[in-house]
């Protein structure tokens, strides 16, 4: 309310205007809408306006109306009266109530109702308005204050329908697969529902829509509602409370607003937004609310996890020292990822960011790791291709895909990563290791920006709201490795961020870089030159480092990153030189061999033992003198040879994860034998 309007409100309080006079003013405006326009018209003189006011309105309201007209507040007179009436009701100790009915209440029923409301709200008086509403079929609905007592037949029938549908889903699953005696069970359920029909409804805290548009509803009332709580609109769609203001709340709609209008009622559910979870989610594609979108039937939920949850504390965690193998040689050797870590994949579009994530998911086969892939703002066709790829390589058996496509509203794209994390936490709570991929958080931030601007939150840098850092930090902080006392599970996150022209200093990239434990930076120039995965070895880093590597991998990789850095620097330095000494030539040849060795085709993750053997061979010059064009075929033949004649070496590497001197000697012998 404006300061000038507050002064007019104070004047009403000082004059002690009655409720009757306020009602009289409203009736004049309702009966003659032109009166307000005339009073607001600057071409009409003050004397003419005074004459209209004195002729049409109660005498006690003359000064108030004249002052509001002179102060330019004519359009807001009714709003000021609303505020004054609320003050009047509080002052008088009475309360407004509305009763919707089909069959009129008797005088005795009305008296009982009045007494009930006065006792419930501890008021001396109550103003009850009765409205005939045939749509509720039977019974009545009482609205008093912020509470709604729904004893209507319409609500009872809806609740009965929901219960019967739930029971039917338990008995029928893709056909008539009911238990023995299911017919009698169904009859029993029907009898119970009919018997409890009158008891189903109860008191709920309600509000009503005051403004609606662009997937956002402004709701008046519901004074005790929580941030992030689910609310239900009268059309059946749900929303999440995002703004808490003095007299209203901002709600984002989780669905189409068809059928909703200003004045539509809203009911609290009493629970925060969450998602139904169970083991049946594995192998399925679901939307941001957990509903299946793959056409494979319903998913029965065993538990309910809130999408927003406090991250585990430091005491509950244990060190990240168990590797999560990606199967990508360049990453596992130089930028290792541990279970419970958050490793950012960042780069321009079309540089292979999603491919790294998909390869990592495929590599978790038989590794006892559950995978969650969250697609945010992607094309539905792109998500379908990824799902088909995962099915082709047998990865969907242990994967859940959460999809909020580009065609979905911004609220769905906003909650999708939180829903995916809730699913991941369900499996983590059972002691499982989980990998979650957020593809991508750039589009997530854009969706949140759109939603926040519609909620009238002030824009900041690049029009993002001020809490956009908290948006991603509270999401990624939930990734952790829990100690044995808290289940021993882990949640590893691979967030993806898309940059523009390689600018990692932009707002969202710098935010997420500062939240994560390292980044894998993919470069367009490297990708176009044929180096794939196009990892920039200088800008990429893992802050967990060697702690997340096996001893065998740590020893085999040696100084790989330093060798590549020296090669890159020397290559730039010598590109215009005509004559090079032998040591420089050997350094360049070794660097080119390593670069070629790190190239890896799509959907071809390497097992741990193969990475160790190849790196050991490269660092000990077993690939020296082999033409680069023949290196890929040579390494394929080498590994086939070792699988045939060195199975004991493979077994020892996989079981012990340690490269002992004896094992290194045996590797050298078999490499020499292959050369010969």
UniProtKB/TrEMBL annotation:
Membrane protein topology class: Peripheral membrane protein
Matching InterPro entries: ATP_synth_asu-like_sf, ATP_synth_asu_C, ATP_synth_asu_C_sf, ATP_synth_F1_a_nt-bd_dom, ATP_synth_F1_asu, ATP_synth_OSCP/delta_N_sf, ATPase_a/bsu_AS, ATPase_F1/V1/A1_a/bsu_N
Catalytic reaction annotation: ATP + H2O + 4 H(+)(in) = ADP + phosphate + 5 H(+)(out)
Record domain ATP synthase alpha subunit C-terminal: where: 549-674
Site (Required for activity): 540
Subcellular location: Cell membrane; Membrane
Broad EC category: translocase
Residues of the ATPase F1/V1/A1 complex alpha/beta subunit N-terminal domain: 205-270
Protein residues bound to ATP: 347-354
PROSITE patterns: ATPASE_ALPHA_BETA
Keywords recorded for this protein, A-Z: ATP synthesis, ATP-binding, Cell membrane, CF(1), Hydrogen ion transport, Ion transport, Membrane, Nucleotide-binding, Translocase, Transport
Domain ATPase F1/V1/A1 complex alpha/beta subunit nucleotide-binding: 327-542
EC number in record: 7.1.2.2
Top-rank taxon: Bacteria
The keyword Membrane appears for this protein: yes
GO function term, MF aspect, one: ADP binding
HAMAP family named among the record's database cross-references: ATP_synth_alpha_bact, ATP_synth_delta_bact
Role this protein plays: Produces ATP from ADP in the presence of a proton gradient across the membrane. The alpha chain is a regulatory subunit. F(1)F(0) ATP synthase produces ATP from ADP in the presence of a proton or sodium gradient. F-type ATPases consist of two structural domains, F(1) containing the extramembraneous catalytic core and F(0) containing the membrane proton channel, linked together by a central stalk and a peripheral stalk. During catalysis, ATP synthesis in the catalytic domain of F(1) is coupled via a rotary mechanism of the central stalk subunits to proton translocation.
Protein name: Multifunctional fusion protein
């Amino acid at each position: 309310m404006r300061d000038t309007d507050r002064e007019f409100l104070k004047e009403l309080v000082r004059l002690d205007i009655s409720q009757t006079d306020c009602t009289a003013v409203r009736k004049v405006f309702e009966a003659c809408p032109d009166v307000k326009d005339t009073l607001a018209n600057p071409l009409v003189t003050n004397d003419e306006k005074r004459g209209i006011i004195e002729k049409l309105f109660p005498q006690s309201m003359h000064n108030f109306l004249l002052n509001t007209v002179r102060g330019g507040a004519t359009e807001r007179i009714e709003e000021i009266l609303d505020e004054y009436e609320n003050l009047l009701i509080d002052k008088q100790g009475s309360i407004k109530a509305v009763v919707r009915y089909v069959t009129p209440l008797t005088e005795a029923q009305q008296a009982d109702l009045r007494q009930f409301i006065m006792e419930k709200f501890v008021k001396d008086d109550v103003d009850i308005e009765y409205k005939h509403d045939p749509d509720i079929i039977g019974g009545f609905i009482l609205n008093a204050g912020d509470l709604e007592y729904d004893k209507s037949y319409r609500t009872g029938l809806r609740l009965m329908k929901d219960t019967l549908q739930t029971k039917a889903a338990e008995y029928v699953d893709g056909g008539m697969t009911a238990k023995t005696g299911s017919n009698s069970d169904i009859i029993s359920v029907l009898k119970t529902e009919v018997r409890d029909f009158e008891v189903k409804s109860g008191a709920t805290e309600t509000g009503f829509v005051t403004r609606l548009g662009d997937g956002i509803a402004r709701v008046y009332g519901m004074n005790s509602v929580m941030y992030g709580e689910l609310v239900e609109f009268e059309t059946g769609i749900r929303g999440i409370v995002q703004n808490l203001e003095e007299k209203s709340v901002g709600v984002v709609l989780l669905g189409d607003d068809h059928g909703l209008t200003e004045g539509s009622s809203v009911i609290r559910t009493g629970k925060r937004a969450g998602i139904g979870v169970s083991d049946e989610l594995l192998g399925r594609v679901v939307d941001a609310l957990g509903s299946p979108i793959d056409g494979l039937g319903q998913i029965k939920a065993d538990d309910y996890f809130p999408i927003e949850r406090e991250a585990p504390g430091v005491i509950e965690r244990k060190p990240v020292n168990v590797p999560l193998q990606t199967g990508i040689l360049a990453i596992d050797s130089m930028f290792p990822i541990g279970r419970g870590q958050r490793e950012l994949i960042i780069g321009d579009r079309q540089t292979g960011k999603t491919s790294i994530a998909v390869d990592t998911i495929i590599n978790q086969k038989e590794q006892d790791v559950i995978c969650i892939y969250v697609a945010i703002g992607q094309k539905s066709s792109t998500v379908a291709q990824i799902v088909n790829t995962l099915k082709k390589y047998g990865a969907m058996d242990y994967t859940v895909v959460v999809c909020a496509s580009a065609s979905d509203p911004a609220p769905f794209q906003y909650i999708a990563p939180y829903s995916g994390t809730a699913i991941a936490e369900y499996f983590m709570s059972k002691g499982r290791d989980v990998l979650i991929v957020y593809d991508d958080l750039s589009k997530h931030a854009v969706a949140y920006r759109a939603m926040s601007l519609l909620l009238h939150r002030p824009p900041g840098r690049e029009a993002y709201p001020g809490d956009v850092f908290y948006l991603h930090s509270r999401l990624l902080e939930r990734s952790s490795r829990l100690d044995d006392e808290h289940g021993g599970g882990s949640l590893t996150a691979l967030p993806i961020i898309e940059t523009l022209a390689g600018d990692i200093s932009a707002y969202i990239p710098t935010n997420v870089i500062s939240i994560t434990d390292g980044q894998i930076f993919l470069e367009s120039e490297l990708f176009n030159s044929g180096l794939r995965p196009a990892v920039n070895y200088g800008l990429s880093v893992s802050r967990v480092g060697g702690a997340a590597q096996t001893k065998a991998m740590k020893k085999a990789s040696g100084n790989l990153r330093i060798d590549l850095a020296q090669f890159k620097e020397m290559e730039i330095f010598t590109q215009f030189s005509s004559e090079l000494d032998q040591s420089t030539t050997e350094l360049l040849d070794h660097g080119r061999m390593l670069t070629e060795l790190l190239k890896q085709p799509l959907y071809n993750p390497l097992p741990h033992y193969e990475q160790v053997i190849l790196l050991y061979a490269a660092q000990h010059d077993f690939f020296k003198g082999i033409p680069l064009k023949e290196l890929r075929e040579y390494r394929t033949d080498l590994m086939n040879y070792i699988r045939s004649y060195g199975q004991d070496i493979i077994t020892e590497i996989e079981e012990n994860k340690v490269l002992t001197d004896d094992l290194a000697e045996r590797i050298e012998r078999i490499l020499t034998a292959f050369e010969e």
